[in-house]
Each structure stands twice: as C-alpha cells, then as structure tokens.
Amino acid sequence: xxxxxxxxxxWIIGTVLLLVLAIVLFNRYxxxxxxxxxxxxxxxxxxxxxxxxxxxxSTLTSINILSKVSQNNLGRDMHKSSVIxxxxxxxxxxxxxxxxxxxxxxxPDNDKLENMVVRxxxxxxxxxxxxxxxxxxxVDKDILHETLAMEQRRDFSWFLKRx
Length: 163
Known about the structure:
Helices cover 79% and strands 0% of the residues. By secondary structure, it is an all-alpha fold. The longest helix is centred in the first third of the chain and has 72 residues, at 2-73.
C-alpha cells in the first residue's frame, strides 16, 4: 500500500514536472517566434526608411539646388530658368509618385493580389496610353484572392520604378 502511494506520488510529480516543462518550452517557442516577427518588422521598417531617404532625400536635394540655380538665372537667362523650373516640376512629380508607392506598399489593405493587378493596370495604362499603344490585360480570376506580403509589394513597386 505504501509502495503504491509512493508510485502514485512519483507519477503525479513526474506528470506535473513534464507539464511545467511543456509550458516552459511552449512559452519559449512563442517568445522566439515573437522576436523573429519583431526582427522582420524592424527590417521592413529599415528598408522603408532607406527607400524614403534614397528616393525622396536625393530628389529634394536636387530640387533645392535647381531652385537656387533658377533664382540666380531668373534675371539673366529666362530660357535656362524655364528649363530648370520644368526640371523641378518633373522631379516634384517623381517624388510625389515615390511617396505614393511607398504608402501604397505599406498599407495592409493592399495585400490582395487583386489590388496589385489594379496597380499594374494603372501603371501600364499611364505608361503606354500616352504612346498610343493599346493594351490587353488578362488575369486569371482564380488568383485574385491570393495575398501578397508587404515585401513582395515593395519589390514589385521597385521593379516598376526601374522600368
């Protein structure tokens, strides 16, 4: 009887220790997973910050320089000033588009492939219609519900900018 009680107590203690060990290991797993997610989010934030700095920072610097050159030439050479102001206007449009691309990329409601298709149609239409090129854009409707990660959207936007 005493041996049975001791065996039962040993089983109970062993079960409790295994349960505690399982809980500790599960919590450790969740913590590692959360830390990995935070690292991924930090990488994405750093990439966005780099994109903002590279694209927008350099364009703003160029606009600033061109503005000063235009001011200096305003009284002397109206044609040169006009060309510089046109350049400033083009760069302003580029920076506006870059900001729009970055904001579009990070918005979570744009994770559906359907939204990417809309974006692609806009880009192709904007790029080719001014050259009087007709386009046919055919997409398999079955894939429109698929989702894209923020990095995939960013990579695609980067690809479009480089074309």
